[in-house]
Amino acid sequence: MKGRFEGILTPTITPLDEKERIDELGFVKHLNRLIDNGVHGIYLLGTSGEFTTLTNAERQRAVEIAANTVGGRVPIICGVMDSSTQRVVQNIEIAQEFKIDAVAATPPYYYPSTGDADIVDFYKTIAQSTDLPVVIYNIPVMVKTAIPPEVVRDLAEGVENIVGIKDSSGDWTNYLKMLAYLGDNEDFSIMLGSYTLAGAAILFGAAGAVISISNVDPKTSVQLYDAAKARQIDEVHRLQKQILELSKLYGYGAAISCLKACMELLGVCSHHTASPLLPVDDAARGELRDLLVEHGLIYSGS
After folding, report:
1. Sign of CA dihedral 35, 166, 247, 224
2. pTM (predicted TM-score)
3. Which residue from 17, 98, 168, 241 has the fewest beta carbons nearer than 10 Å?
């Protein structure tokens, strides 16, 4: 099975209540807001979705709520990451009970890879366990394993239902190598997980970007993609600068805590995160409010 994912896919936060259970009303509101603002897909239970800290029951609830809310309006790629191959396979079995379009996985975390062979074996095993398309997720800073572009090429060419990569390495050379190897492959999507590289990468031929800042400002992220696809270089520069200015929001604590503080200020959902992440303090909330006002995302009197 092959497929292609394009555009801005939001690695959605997972709204929680004070007991770390899924806030269903907030989640539905957030997903609808993203789609109403033009995002091209939802990337569920990724790093921004706190997948490692949620219980298995809450992860399953998140998938069910998202699938029912999205209702096929845009594709859903569901993260199935875990600490071993068989745990990932179990997560895939649960996720595919719901209407999702693909699964995404990093190499298993905690025990780092010892070479290319175990990475290849892992992805072949999980791909063989499902009929769903599989997206490679490369985020070495979090999982201690970097996936070389040559391995991505070999998996894309050798395993039919491996259909794309979210590359969050932040390595421009890494991206250019993948583009050289796979840029002409119409059945494989190279998606960047870096908001700083997104505009340039799409100009060069990336299929899209999976950027957490689109939780807060989906409209500008979509405009960046549209401008890059249209090769409007001056507009890409303007929008990329705007996103970089907004990215100051990450400077007030843990990235997810900052995102959720913004979502509460936007009136979407509460700020609650899963322990051990702490919320941002009141002074930071005030500065975040000022930043959102400056970018026209909330009114000064709200």
Report:
1. negative
2. 0.95
3. 241
Q: Identify the domain containing residue 30 by its residue range.
A: 7-232
Q: Which pLDDT tens digit goes with each residue over 199-256? A: 999 999 999 999 999 999 999 999 999 999 999 999 999 999 999 999 999 999 999 9
Structure tokens at 192: 């960047």
User: What total number of domains does the chain contain?
Assistant: 1
Furthest CA-CA distance within the chain: 57
Q: Is residue 172 part of a domain?
A: yes
The DSSP annotation for 129-161 comes to T-SS-EEEEE-HHHHS----HHHHHHHHHH-TT
Residue 272 lies in a domain: no
Closest listed residue to residue 91, CA positions, set 48, 44, 124, 138: 44
CATH number, domain containing residue 127: 3.20.20.70
Residue-by-residue DSSP string for the chain? ------EEEEE----B-TTS-B-HHHHHHHHHHHHHTT-SEEEESSTTTTTTTS-HHHHHHHHHHHHHHHTTSS-EEEE---SSHHHHHHHHHHHTTS--SEEEEPSPSSS---SHHHHHHHHHHHHHT-SS-EEEEE-HHHHS----HHHHHHHHHH-TTEEEEEE-S--HHHHHHHHHHHTT-TT-EEEE--TTTHHHHHHHT--EEE-GGGGT-HHHHHHHHHHHHTT-HHHHHHHHHHHHHHGGGGGGSSHHHHHHHHHHHTTSS-----TT-----HHHHHHHHHHHHHTTSS-TT-
Q: 237 lies in a domain?
A: no
pLDDT tens digits for 187-214?
999 999 999 999 999 999 999 999 999 9
217 domain residue, yes or no = yes
